[in-house]
């Protein structure tokens, strides 16, 4: 009898050991692959994850679509990609990059901290087509500003009929671009700046993170500009299959990512400061407010259509009105 109990105990211990030793493969998208700043953050995360009984192997990707495809094919147990693309796996976190939803880096910092708050634990879990997913972290890429090849295209009215490269997996971008009577050109992160630099499109929206790696200066050097009005915020979501990771891994991971938020924004501000001042154009305040109202209406409609998560829309509004208390929208309902 004792021998039988001993054998069962040994099998159980070996089983537990096998679980803790199993490596978790994580597909990580970064424009610069291993050399990118985001990838370096995930390297720090992977080292810390050993304390949570995980054994992470990071796989770098410069092609976001391939990272997603490999994740869906089961080649990776987790994936780090833009939140817009990750919306498929979690609409709450994936809506943090709603059009016009974040108006400054300060607001973005508040929004990420709110989203990762432990009170939102259940909202960061989702089942899609029978598969379980969990958001284990959010990182900032940066505010996406408008770049134009011709700086005279400085109002929405002048932009009508101009070609805009939108990320084809984000229906929200196409909806807004079409509503502004611009020509929407489907693109990927890997080619939207190339289209801009070669004159295939007239307008793009991009964070400073992509400015040097994708050589945006080539497209604006002759007579272009960057307008400081942020049309969208770009973050990245770490999506895991929770059953592939140790118990409570997601909670521990999110707590770690919250602590990285200040460092993430220090990086963003440094990259934004690296864009030459000669290309930067500040829009008149009245134009900014007018555009915010247009984007707000678009956001509300997209939320009604089920594209954006209504709870996240309230989180974003709370973040905006915490920072910008006198904003026109803070006394309005609808979000």
What do these coordinates show?
Helix 2 (37-48) links the parallel strand 1 (23-29) and strand 2 (55-61). This protein is 42% helix and 22% strand. The model is unreliable at 1-21 (pLDDT under 50). It is α/β, with parallel strands linked by helices and 335 residues long. It folds into two domains: 23-141 and 234-273, Periplasmic binding protein-like II (D-Maltodextrin-Binding Protein, domain 2, 3-Layer(aba) Sandwich), CATH 3.40.190.10; 144-233 and 276-307, D-Maltodextrin-Binding Protein, domain 2 (3-Layer(aba) Sandwich), CATH 3.40.190. It has 13 helices and ten strands.
Uncertain spans, ≥5 residues at pLDDT below 50? 1-21
Please tally the β strands and state the result.
10
Shape type: globular
CATH topology of the largest domain: D-Maltodextrin-Binding Protein, domain 2
- Write down the overall mean pLDDT: 91
* Proportion in β-strands: 15-25%
Count of alpha/pi helices: 13
The CATH C-level name of the largest domain is: Alpha Beta
**CATH superfamily placement of the largest domain:** Periplasmic binding protein-like II
Gap between N and C termini: 65 Å
CATH architecture of the largest domain: 3-Layer(aba) Sandwich
State the main characteristics.
single chain; disordered N terminus; 2 domains; D-Maltodextrin-Binding Protein, domain 2; alpha/beta; eight-stranded mixed β-sheet; 335 residues
How is the topology of this model organized?
Layout: H1 2-21, E1 23-29, H2 37-48, E2 55-61, H3 64-72, E3 78-82, H4 83-86, H5 91-94, H6 105-115, E4 125-128, E5 131-148, H7 156-159, E6 163-167, H8 171-179, E7 183-187, H9 192-197, E8 203-206, H10 217-220, E9 225-240, H11 249-273, E10 280-281, H12 285-304, H13 310-323
Parallel strand pairs: 1-2, 1-3, 6-7, 9-10
Antiparallel strand pairs: 3-9, 4-5, 5-8, 5-9
Keywords: Signal
Pfam families: AdeT1_2
Organism: Acinetobacter corruptisaponis
């Amino acid at each position: 009898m004792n021998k039988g109990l001993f054998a069962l105990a040994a099998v159980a211990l070996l089983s537990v050991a096998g679980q803790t030793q199993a490596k978790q493969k994580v597909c990580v998208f970064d424009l610069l692959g291993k050399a990118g700043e985001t990838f370096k953050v995930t390297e720090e995360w992977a080292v810390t994850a050993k304390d949570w009984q995980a054994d992470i192997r990071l796989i770098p990707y410069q092609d976001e679509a391939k990272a997603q495809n490999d994740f869906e094919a089961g080649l990776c147990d987790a994936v780090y990609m833009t939140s817009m693309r990750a919306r498929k796996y979690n609409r709450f976190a994936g809506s943090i990059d709603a059009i016009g939803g974040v108006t400054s880096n300060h607001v973005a910092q508040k929004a990420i901290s709110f989203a990762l708050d432990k009170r939102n634990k259940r909202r960061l879990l989702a089942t899609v087509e029978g598969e379980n997913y969990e958001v284990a972290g959010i990182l900032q890429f940066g505010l996406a500003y408008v770049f134009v090849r011709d700086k005279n295209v400085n109002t929405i009215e002048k932009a009508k009929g101009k070609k805009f490269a939108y990320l084809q997996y984000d229906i929200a971008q196409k909806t807004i671009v079409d509503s502004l009577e611009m020509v929407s050109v489907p693109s990927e992160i890997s080619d939207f700046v190339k289209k801009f630099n070669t004159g295939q499109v007239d307008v793009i929206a991009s964070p400073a993170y992509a400015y040097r790696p994708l050589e945006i200066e080539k497209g604006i050097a002759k007579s272009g500009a960057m307008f400081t009005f942020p049309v969208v915020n770009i973050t990245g979501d770490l999506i895991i299959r929770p059953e592939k990771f140790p118990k409570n891994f997601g909670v521990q991971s999110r707590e770690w990512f919250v602590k990285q938020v200040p460092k993430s924004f220090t990086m963003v501000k440094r990259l934004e400061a690296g864009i030459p001042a000669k290309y930067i154009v500040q829009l008149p305040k009245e134009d900014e407010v007018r555009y915010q109202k247009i984007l707000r209406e678009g956001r509300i409609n997209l939320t009604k259509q089920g594209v954006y998560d209504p709870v996240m829309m309230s989180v974003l509004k709370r973040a905006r009105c915490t920072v910008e208390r006198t904003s026109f929208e803070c006394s309005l309902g609808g979000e």
